Each structure stands twice: as C-alpha cells, then as structure tokens.
Amino acid sequence: MASAATVALFLMATPAAQAADLEDPGCSLSGSVMAGIMFDWQELDFNGEDQVDVDWTTPFGEGAALATCGGLNIQADIAYYGHSGDYEFDFGNQNNVDRGASHIGGALFYRDPLSWAAGVQASWISQNISGIDIDVFRIGLFGELYLGESFTLGGNAAYHNSDSSSNFDIEQSGFELAAYGRFYATPDVSLMLRGDVLFADTESFGDDGDLNGYAISGEAEYLVWDQGLSLFAGARYAERNHDLDFDNDFHFDSQETQVFGGIKFYFGRDGTLVERQRTAPVDNTSVFEEKLPNTLFDFPS
Predict the structure, then answer these.
(1) Residue from 192, 292, 276, 275 nearest 233 by CA
(2) Contact 201, 210 (CB under 8 A)
(3) CA–CA gap between residue 224 and residue 238 (Å, rounded)
(4) In the beta sheet, which residues pair with residue 256?
(5) Domain ranges, ordered by start, for the chain
(6) Residue 40, Cβ neighbours under 10 Å: how many?
(7) Cα–Cα distance between 235 and 259 in angstroms, integer?
(8) Which of 221, 202, 191, 115 is nearest to 162 (CA)?
(9) What angle do CA 298, 155, 239 make, to 5 degrees?
(10) What is the DSSP string of 180-219?
(11) E strand or H helix that includes residue 5
C-alpha cells in the first residue's frame, strides 16, 4: 500500500511540475512599432519684438525590440520625426523648412511587471536643421512603479550633449527631467499625463547661452484588437527660452501646441493593454530633441 501511494503521489505531482515548467517562459522576444502624424503651431518671439508663426507637419515612426530573460530586459530602438515647417514672416513666407530627427538607441533594465521597473537608457540622435547636421548623445536613468492594475507612475532623468558637424558652430549640453502617470480607465484604455523640463547650456560662435523649457503632454491609447493593435491620440504644449550673449543680449522665446495621433502594434506578448505596456519596450525618445522641432537656431535657411 505504501509503495502504491508513493507511485500515485508521483504520478499526480509530475503533471503539476511539467505545468510549472511550461509557465516559466525563460527568455522571450517582444516589441512594438508605431506610426503617426503630428501637427504643431509654433510662435517665435525675437527679443520680445519680432514675431514669426510656424506651422509644422510631422510624420513619425518608432520601433523597438525587447529581449527578456526573467526580470532582465535588453532593448534596441529606432525613431524618426520628419518635421517640416511653413514660416510666416512680416516680409513674406518660406515653406517646407526641414527639422528632421532620427534616433538609434537602447536600454538595459530590470522589471517586475507586478510592481516596478528601473534601468539605464541611451540614444544617438541625428538632427538636420536646413542642411546643418547636429549629433546628439543622450544617456539617463528611468523608473516605473506599478500601483495595482489602475495606475502607473514613472519618471526619467537624462543628460544630453550635442555638437554640429559643419562649420556652423553649435554646441549644447544639459539635462532633461520627466515625470508621468498613467490611469487605466479599463484594462484596454490608458490615459497619460506627462511633464518635461529642460535645462541646457549652449555655445554658438564662441558665445554662451542658456536654453530652458517645459512641456506638458496628454495621451490616450485604446487596444482595439486583442492581437496587439492599438490607436493613440494626444496633445502637447511647450515653451522654450533661448538667451544668447552676443555683443549684446539676444533671446527668443518659443511657444507651441501640438496634436498627434497614430497606430501602434505590440508583438510577442498577449494580454490587455495594461499587461502589454508593462511588458513592452519602454519609451526612449526625447521630447525636446525629437518630438519638438529644434529651436537652437530656429531660422530658416
């Protein structure tokens, strides 16, 4: 009887152990791709007197792949924002002014989808300002806190350094800080509110300057298909102030409003939107260096 009972317990335990093994996914590959369009209405004030209005149209796309082994995550990502603006001056107009930004980056982080995530992220951003090439290197830390199934809190701090690769001597270095919160109205509907600030030093033709700014963004996303397809839309308001110390003080201020929308596809994972967002690649783009047109020298050529 004892041996029969032992055999019975072994036979009962074996399927359970096999099921536990099947629940452990080991290493997996997942990711996301998105595409959208953005419209931006910008107002530039030079020394508080001259005013220029710019209407921007920006097609954009992002993609990322994520390798996950237990809690360790390794991410590679790309992005492109093709800013094209129409300037309205008192003396005339100039159309199709380019401010494109492309991005290659990655992240290394630990994540427990039930509680938190934290790690380091970096990117190289290539900007084109009317034919002037600018390279931006960006590195920082980020973290997220998952509060049940209804709230996510997050933030990041990044250092960036940029330099012009042409005879047009432009340098910029500083910090970007961001904080955001997501509320899940349902498991497949997320509402996000985000704030960003910029503190940077600039050098142009040997003269020093300061570039500071802030941005407030709101975004909604809805998982329309349980195989990973979602729609998103949002808006952003931003202000930037650039003070330059030439022979006399010179500054210009930028105020702009953006609206955007697009489509996103998650692959490699199943689940609701909240589950996908807490297991998908993290956002590794810069609001000031990519999503907003570069205003370091915002004059059309």
Answers:
(1) 192
(2) yes
(3) 30
(4) 42, 238
(5) 29-291
(6) 21
(7) 4
(8) 202
(9) 25
(10) EEEEEEETTEEEEEEEEEEEEEEEETTEEEEEEEEEEEEE
(11) helix 2-23
DSSP 114: T
Q: Specify the pTM.
A: 0.86
DSSP per-residue codes, 131-173: TEEEEEEEEEEEEEEEETTTEEEEEEEEEEEEEESSSS-EEEE
Q: For the domain 29-291, what is the CATH code?
A: 2.40.128.130
> What confidence tens digit (pLDDT) does each residue in 18-76 have?
333 333 458 999 999 999 999 999 998 877 766 888 999 999 999 999 999 999 999 99
Q: Which secondary structure element, helix H or strand E, spans residue 175, and what is its range?
A: strand 170-186
Q: 141, 159 in Cβ contact below 8 A?
A: no
Let me know: does 95 contact 288? Beta carbons within 8 Å: no
> DSSP string of 11-60?
HHHHHHHHHHHHH---EEEEEEEEEEEEEEEEEEEETTTEEEEEEEEEEE
What DSSP character marks residue 270?
A: -
Element (H, E) at 251: strand 249-267
Residues 215 and 64: their CA atoms lie apart, in Å, by: 24
Dihedral angle sign, alpha carbons of residues 110, 116, 122, 127: positive
Tens digit of pLDDT for each residue in 239-281?
A: 999 887 655 667 788 999 999 999 999 999 999 999 999 999 9
What is the C-alpha to C-alpha distance for residues 59 and 282, in angstroms, rounded to an integer? Answer: 21
